[in-house]
Amino acid sequence: MATSNGSHNGGHLYQPQVFTKTQREITREVLDQTRSTGPGYKRALAFFGLLLVLGIIGFIIRATNDGFDRFSPWGYMMATFSFLITAAASAPVFSVTQRMVRSHWRRPMARVAEMFAVVGVLSTLMFIPLLLLLPSAEGRRSIWFEWPGTPFWPDILAVVFLFVLGIALLFVAAVPDLAATRDLGDGWRQRWAARLVPGWHGDDRQWKVLRAGLMVLGALYFMMLIYVHFLITADFAQALVPGWKDSILAPYHALSGLQSAIAVTLVAMYLLYRFGGFKDYIHADQFKSASKILLGLSLLWFYFWFSGFIVYWYGRQPVEQNVLKTFMFEAYRWPFVISMVLTFFVPVFGLMWNFVRKSLLGPALIGFSILVGTMMDRVRIYVATFSIADKRADALEALHPEPLLGVPTAQMPVTADVMIVIGGIGGAIFLYLLAMKFIPIISIWEVSEGLLYRKTVPFLKRTIMLMGKPD
Amino acid sequence: MQERVAMGGNLQEVEQKVNRDLLISVTGSVPKRFWVAVALMAFLAAAGFGAAGYVVAQGLGATGLNRPIMWAFFITNFVFWIGISHAGVMLSAILRLAQAEWRRPATRAAEIVTIFSLVNAMLFPIIHTGRPWRTLYWAFPYDFGRGIWPNVRSPLIWDPSAIITYLTSSVLFVYVALIPDIAVARDRTTGIRHQFYSVLALGWRGYPRQWRLQIIAGFLLSALILPIFVSVHSIVSWDFAVNQSVEGWHSTIFAPYFVIGAVHSGVSAVVTVMIILRFLFKWEDYIRPEHMDALGRLLIVVAITWFYFFAMEVTFGLFTLENAELGLRSMQFFETPYSTLFLVFIIAAFFFPVPMWMFKNVRRSFFWMTITTISVNIGMWLERFLIIIPGLARKQPLSFSWSTYAPSVPEILMVVGSFGFVGMSILLFAKVFPLIPIYDVKEGEILRREMKIGKVTIPAVIREE
Amino acid sequence: MAKQDNGRAKWSMVVDSDRCTGCQACVVACQAENNIPLNEEDIFKQRRAMSWIRIERYWEVPFEYTQHPKKPEDAPFDQVKARFLPILCQHCENAPCEPVCPVFATYHNDEGLNVQVYNRCIGTRFCANNDPYNVRFFNYWEPGWPETLRNQLNPDVTVRSRGVMEKCTFCVQRIRRTERTARKEGREVADGEHAPACVQACPTDALVFGDINNPDSRVSKLSKDARSYRLLEDQGTEPNIHYLMKVDPFLTEENGHE
């Protein structure tokens, strides 16, 4: 397996520079990078800003032409929203879980993942018009069992709360770095940081509170995210398709969220390594370890999909057959095939090789493929659902509507839909790029802390690495 | 900070102590309480086998089964033991791949629990069939003379295939890890026992090449066994989930829900077994509070995930507000005796142990870990019961045939006996082979270091990147 | 997934619930014809009674008593009606019980019959679980008959041993007998020439049996009746038994029916 070619690609040629640096150097360098805005950065910011504007125009076209009475015009917007929740909002979870298991390799990656919380601005805003589409939960089948006011308040509360928690997590994890900006930075950044974290001095108690806070916030964020996935799949997918009763859909959605979380972090890290000036900080360790998890999650993705599929396929009830035909085999066959290839076959058959996992470009490309595949998956779920919901708008109001009896035809995107999709994704990147200049994208304190746990010691005839494993 | 029990002295002394302590069952004399435990377990097992013989002789009329409750205690117990068997791979393969240090004393106990509970679980579907003497038709295509093959469309064919594969690979897995330890036993025994270990040790001399092969084989088996491990309980779940006619079974989440439930009960069972072994063989130096701590934390994660799947299953079952599903769930939750069982199940499997594990003192107390893990397994047994029986009792929608179920004495005896059988097998295995991997513990001792950061000392481990 | 017409008969039945009086003659006839063990009192109490065809009795109350504040039990007795539904194996074209058998003890033959091979059956009872109509029966005990009834057993029908599933066969022994006779006489089997025991015994002619592939048969005409429906059609099992709805002379729009 490990050919000579393969091992060359790995960590042997490339020595992570970060381990030879001192804490001071790290702080200085990362703060400098945060401050610098090269022409490349500005061009990128302008480009993605333009895409965001395009998306807003697309939204306005849709809103003026179609209004919010029917579902089907908004299928692609829903898919984009769900993709943002799946990829961007899930990313902080990757850092949270790795912090919980105290892995050392996560250190340079933690902030890269957490920074995706800022995309919540966009997804929360996108969610509000989508909520207008939903009929009240009274007198129809839904997970709310006819509670008053549902599904509106639980849904909006959950999405807003998720956003707030994400920002809180990002902020708390960044407190020591902001304090460094306050003490060592200059200009508006220094003043901004000084206002945000006036009291951080890094004494024992503060660190204890910080660590406990990160744990609690992280756990809350994780649970909230799973809950949001559950709400979205229930209110915006299953409840809208009569007869669709698929208990794995929410866990499947959440799992593909975790998978895309790693994918999006890998892509972001590669870009930061390549263009962001962090060649010394990001190294093969992150890619190697994250790829292993990604490989496992990709296998799990297939497993979750299959365990839903086999039950429906074996059951052979007419409703189930129609659901399968609609979402997988007839109407939305191509989005399904593409997502299956890109989120399962490409990652599994790519990441099973050691040399791919150890390389930097390989996992990043596979991450990109997963993101495209996940987007396709969301298209097949939500565009299909919304087109069905539309045709059966009156049936939705009934407690026991006729089950799905036919297979709808696929709904192709029109120009406005394309604008909304690229606007949503471009806007997310725009926000991320912007946030990078406010908060250091590499977690200074976590990287510096990592230096302490690492020591080379002599062992027999060799020198080996000793890793501290704190409890 | 955790306290670490230093094993004292230099490496040589540590190795000698490890050999002496862990081979106590093989070379030394075991405490008397060991034989008391074996006798007790053997008695229970004998009762179980007696009951099984009675059922086979009399026919399934001797059970409490009826129409439409065609599956009950036997299948519940089958699913339960298959669940327990998931502990082995979960702990040893995943933790080995993840290079978790604390796995070392737990791995073999987990694998042995896997093997014997699998063997035990396989007995139940056979006894449960109407004509156990004809089960050759079932899994083996021996009737090919007439061109009749087993029906590969049936989940009951996937079942034995997956279970036998899992059993085979688990045995291989255990054996590969046992070889160095068998060699140690071989070098310290005489006579017939020496010959026995010599044959099993396959000429192990501890050459670097042998070690390399052993380690590679261990890693490969770990990776290969994982899909099998997932497949086994998924297929068991499909025995139920593919039934379109039983309300409450036909749920797409069943496969992962069963697997995570299996891990929940399996890891708990391993903790129980480890504590019992620690008591029986006086292995206080090897199974330490920090291992319980790590297992407890793992259990919290597993239990919460399991609860999430449970909640999804119930919510998405109910959300269509179909009368059939509402009827089934109201029976499961609110009608005696199922409501009582349900309450016991949900408290024992989740609401009692998980908040307990949140406390470090509980996780580090052997007493409380025994109580909580046994509680989990009581709950998880009831979980399977509550999935299987109410679904069949309210087979929708022809209400004319609804029924109830009460187990008969032979069925209860067989369930009790299955615990005796597995317990007895594990204990006897522990008499012949070291149940804590000797070489793994030694390796852990060699790799274990400490590191000073400022004023504190933290445990550290050697890593070759 | 309906089978193509392969030139062979497709045996089918029509059950007219309007004619059924719930007299249970079919149940007794089936018991006698098919060597079904006696359902003695203790067997019945064990809930292991076997009857390949059974009459399910339901009480129908006015619609308003099924709505929430009122209870079905409170309906005045003169408005409660007994409804009878004879249920036997539906011989589904797309039978859920078939694919789950690990040993191929049950399969679909090309005459539309869902057949059970007793010799092959090992008694996993999976088929019974996946059977939505509850028409499969398991021999929990070795069947036995009193000495005086030994000679009553039908020689054309296997006596099942304990540990196997059994179910309605559409009296396949009768089908084969007629086919043999017809072949000997060099002619086709005529419609209504033979019938299962239950059909033969039905005093009100509520059960009709025949070849649904033959457009002139009574079965195929009745199955196209406006009252025709099939049990649990939403399960997609495509049963070979057609039921004809009850015609209720007292039916009005107020009590909830169209």
One letter per element, helices H and strands E, the order of chain A comes to HHHHHHHHHHHHHHHHHHHEE
Low-confidence regions of chain B? 1-6
Task: Summarize the biggest pleated sheet of chain B.
Answer: 2 strands, antiparallel
Q: Can you write the helix and strand succession of chain B as a string?
A: HHHHHHHHHHHHHHHHHHEE
Structural class, from helix and strand content of chain B? mainly alpha
What is the CATH C level class of chain B, in words? Answer: Mainly Alpha
Task: Classify the beta-strand content of chain A into a percent band.
Answer: under 5%
Query: What is the number of independent domains of chain A?
Result: 1
Task: Give the total of beta strands of chain B.
Answer: 2
Q: Largest sheet of chain A, if any? A: 2 strands, antiparallel
Chain pair forming the biggest interface: A-B, 46 and 42 residues
Number of E-type strands of chain A: 2
Which fold does the CATH topology of chain B refer to?
Formate dehydrogenase/DMSO reductase fold
- Number of continuous helical runs of chain B: 18
Count every helix of chain A, treating DSSP H or I runs of 4 or more residues as helices: 19
The class by helix and strand makeup of chain A works out as mainly alpha
Could you say how many structural domains of chain B there are in total? 1
Mean pLDDT of chain B: 87
Shape of chain B: globular
Low-pLDDT segments of chain A? 1-14
Word description of this protein:
The complex is a heterotrimer of chains A (471), B (465) and C (258). With 471 residues, chain A is mainly α. Chain A has one domain (39-467). Helices cover 70% and strands 3% of the residues of chain A. A two-stranded antiparallel ribbon of chain A has the order 1-2. In chain A, a hairpin with a 2-residue loop joins strand 1 (454-459) and strand 2. In chain A, helix 5 (91-100) crosses helix 10 (204-235) and helix 5 crosses helix 11. The relative contact order of chain A is 0.18. Chain B has 465 residues and is mainly alpha-helical. Chain B has 18 helices and 2 strands. In chain B, strands 1-2 form a two-stranded antiparallel sheet. Chain B is globular, with a radius of gyration of 23 Å. Chain C has one domain: 2-Layer Sandwich (Alpha-Beta Plaits). Chain C has helices spanning 25-33, 41-45, 126-129, 172-184, 197-201, 218-223; strands at 11-16, 54-60, 81-87, 106-108, 114-116, 136-138, 165-167, 207-211, 228-229, 241-244. The model of chain C has no long low-confidence stretch (mean pLDDT 88). Chain C contains 6 helices and 10 strands. Helices cover 16% and strands 17% of the residues of chain C. Strand 2 (462-468) of chain A pairs antiparallel with strand 2 (456-463) of chain B.
